[in-house]
């Protein structure tokens, strides 16, 4: 009767609800979808309690004389291994007790507990047998959890052992992380006990790795250490290993003073042939290298060619020239401080080679406030962040241009001690630490745009002693030490920088917004998108195939000249300009020598593209430098 009474009242209430809803626009909902999120986890916990009390268990695992009761359906649902064991025609399908060979009791008990609870404790004592058991029993997530635990323990001392372990266990994630650490911290890895036990193929794979973060000089020293560990059986491998050293990025002095004279290298005719080929290639200033030498001139390892912008010096509104140096990382868009320039210099020139920034000449202030031309050279090591005195130039000069090619540094023109416009050219050999005079420019010019490419130095425009634009291109053939001129009405730039990408030289502004590209192959000029402002005394350089323009001075809408802290980027693929913000320092007339620098770069490969510095003298001295550098090899700059 009570049941009938309740049913009648429920039907009555339901009819009333329907009648009440009939006048509403909303659809009638008679279904409530309820989901108990805790049910599945609670169910497993209850099943685990039943398992421990041996209630409804239908299989017992035996290991080391101990028993672990389980439910077959739980195991089948948790692992393909147990699904195959209990749902196929194996003998274990009907067995009440199963012996799992090779799995210790404590490991098996931990895994069963993990299956029922989803949690497990991984320690250094348990991780290896746990990982082996997880692999055998096909618990993929547990296997990866063990891998994650081991990845957290990685260090330069154990990464080689971890690599071997990951290969045995077929653990790809651990292998990748251990390998990544090994190539990133290779200079520390070579000091580990496992390094000298590497096989020849293993060592070759590291030396060939494009991610290897180590200088090529150390690559050579590393292969020597490996050979000397077992000289009797390994001496014959010198040629195979030596071919993996990227000689293009070895400092020439180290190459010819140490590598070439090493007894092991001299004992191999193939190695000595390589050394002689490199020597001929460097000293002949050749255009191309043979196919056998292509690997030696390979591109720098990816970890060793991170591009950055370095801002040096600068002055604004008649203030004193700054000694500051800052580094801009294009990838992180962060600025960091480098060591200060030793001396306040006015209108020097800059280049960068072999991980060293060269500050060449300029004016120095004497007692009484007078400026004196200087032939001094200061160098900043981008590895140690320390300044040193370099070999002085032959003659004092300022407002000159600088360029690099192979292992040479060129300085061109400028003003002499008596203020006369000079056409003299000097060349510095970084291998022999020696300056020498070269063939002078046909026409002395001030403020030209200068780049080097494919054995030639191009000098675009500039102005003569009467401050009139010089409409010509002067080209210097480095191998022949000869100049020739090309008259052209298109060239009229003064105080404009130049940068090279592939076979095109871009001339940026110069009292104008105009930007043109000179195609070296076709000997033609192309019009490019104009800059946003009429600029002069600015700087330009190439980073990742884009031209960055910094600082300088610009002509505003009132036709007056103002200092600029602009930071702009030109993309030749889209022929468009983008503002990158402003410089972090109050320096204008920014100097950005436009050339790619590899921190480990020794001589540039003949025929390769290199856009040397575009340093132009200004009435307001400032220096801004763009370089292609390996930040990992640089010290952590102090703020």
TrEMBL record:
Coiled coil: which residue ranges?
A: none
Is Repeat among this UniProt entry's keywords?
yes
Domain named BTB is located at 57-124
Query: SUPFAM superfamilies in the record, alphabetically?
Result: Kelch motif, POZ domain
One family name in Pfam for this protein: Beta-prop_ATRN-LZTR1
Provide the alphabetized UniProt keywords. Answer: Kelch repeat, Repeat
Carries keyword Transferase? no
Give the matching SMART domains. Answer: BACK, BTB, Kelch
Protein name per the record: Kelch-like family member 38b
